[in-house]
Amino acid sequence: MVLAISVEGVHKRYGDKQALAGLDLEVAPGTVHAVLGPNGAGKTTAVRIMTTLLRHDEGVVRVAGRDVRKDPAAVRSRIGLLGQHAALDEELAGRQNLEMFGRLHHLGARRAGQRADELLERFGLADTGRKAVKQYSGGMRRRLDLAASLITDPQVLFLDEPTTGLDPRGRAEVWSAVRSLVGGGTTVLLTTQYLEEADQLADRIALIDGGRVAAEGTADELKALVGADRIVVVLRDAARLAEAARLLPDPTVDPDTLTLSFPVEDRMAGLSRTLRTLQDAGIEAADLAVRRPTLDEVFLQLTDREEVAA
Predict the structure, then answer these.
(1) pLDDT digits (tens, 9 = 90+) for 250-291
(2) Which CATH class is domain 230-292?
(3) What is the distance of C-alpha 238 from the center of its chain?
(4) Can you name the residues that pair with 310 across neighbouring β-strands?
């Protein structure tokens, strides 16, 4: 299988600062691969190198089968890049913006118009294509920006924090558009400050810290690194809290919220045993659930930082 992105032993220095220190990354075609990391971890530097905007000092980077150092023009012809800030003319209509991007990419006038119509339809903007972009909602603008990054039908699309500043509805619109892209065979490399976004979209996640990959895997694989699932029980009666604590396997107890929690290896078996234990003792639970570790917890534990950032 030819990888969509291959990064091998990449180093990059800015004076005395080591931005990348042997970065290795592989992205399979037709997948979403998220890159997370604290501020200054090297995410932006890595993306700039992969998109031919910055030269690396050591290592090999191939995107869409081409070496970014030896054949940058071929790489650029095969990729799309969506930055953090919309690159749209708000006075022009949505269709006019897409036509302009098409002409900038050397499409003829007729083909640029056809491609604009195709993308407006694909992203659910056909009915608003003749409206000025300044009349668009945040989610609509971002979808139009995403459409513009696809004007040349790239094999690999780089999304740099695509939903920053959007409300939940706008974020959901962009997520749906990204899923549609991947369903059509596009490979997406995503950097994001929203760990939930990586959890929702990514087939695999690379956590970068100190200029190299600190951990990589599916969301579930990364969560498993920081501990087991936990059963969480909320009681109705504070008077039964101590009794429940004696019956359950070494739980953590929060008397303020009447909550007990403890780790389990088998989620379903653990739920069944807990429910049966409480019922046999006549202890009523207001809530009973399995809590999985979050990507926030993975991030904080593996980077040993106080803050969560992408």
Answers:
(1) 899 999 999 999 988 888 899 999 999 999 999 999 999 998
(2) alpha beta
(3) 41
(4) none
